[in-house]
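User: quick one
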Amino acid sequence: SKNISVALVGNPNSGKTTLFNYASGSKERVGNYAGVTIDAKEGRFRQNDFSFRISDLPGTYSITEYSPEELFVRNHIAERKPDVVVNVVDASNLERNLYLTTQLIDMNIKVVIALNMYDELQQKDVKFDYKRLGEMIGIPIVPTVASKGKGLKELFNKIIEVHEERDPIVRHIHINYGADIEQAISTIQTEIKKDETRNKNYSTRYLSIKLLEDDKNTQELLKSNTNYEDVLKVANDEIGRLERLLGDKSETLIADAKYGFIAGALKQTYKPGAQTRRENS
Ligand code: GDP
Ligand code: MG
Ligand code: K
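Assistant: Done. Structure below.
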């Protein structure tokens, strides 16, 4: 049988552990609890001819800020290189959950979105064209109700398709950060690419965006580049240029652009109802 490694990534309480338990038959604790160590729970699952090695990663709202959980998730993706990242998204909290998705898009990796808590969305009077959203962002979206095991067969079939590059909607989009930021990204990318021996675990676009966010961990990561000092100087010059030009902190400008992208995509695909359906009526 063929092996596929899968990492579950998503906000806290999006249902990652529930999905993990259902698929792997394990009994990890679900829900909020304090004092957990930061690690990945590993489990196995079989479907058809495939054997999946699944990692349940710590919940994070982003992979930008310097917290041990976020760093753990980021390093797991870049260094362990799961074949497919499953971004578990809480369907009743789309705007906030999709922020992390924009960062996965920057990383240029294979992603499938599990649109979890789909039951909660169905109880509301909303229309959400998730297929269209998936086409727009180049990432397939599969509705799931992890607590009932619903949609998981479809989810794992989609993981196989994406892994084997058989899903025509998959493509790597660039979030458009606007002309000024795009110019800065491109300038930094050019500098990073001058070192042929650089760490190729990360795309140069991702690294450049992270440098514009003044991400200390990414600065550390680039220390092994032969032109490290030049890269940092170019990045700092670009941060200064953007902040003078646009009058805000560079990392705020990037976050705003991500939220703008999400809002724009949801505006075209998500129609909230006038009211939520009354129970038992
Ligand atoms: P994690 O923090 O991402 O690992 O989330 P958990 O797996 O701990 O789930 C958080 C809560 O959501 C738990 O109470 C689950 O029972 C519940 N839950 C998980 N999936 C679903 C779902 O599809 N629908 C609903 N309604 N609840 C779910
Ligand atoms: Mg969990
Ligand atoms: K809930």
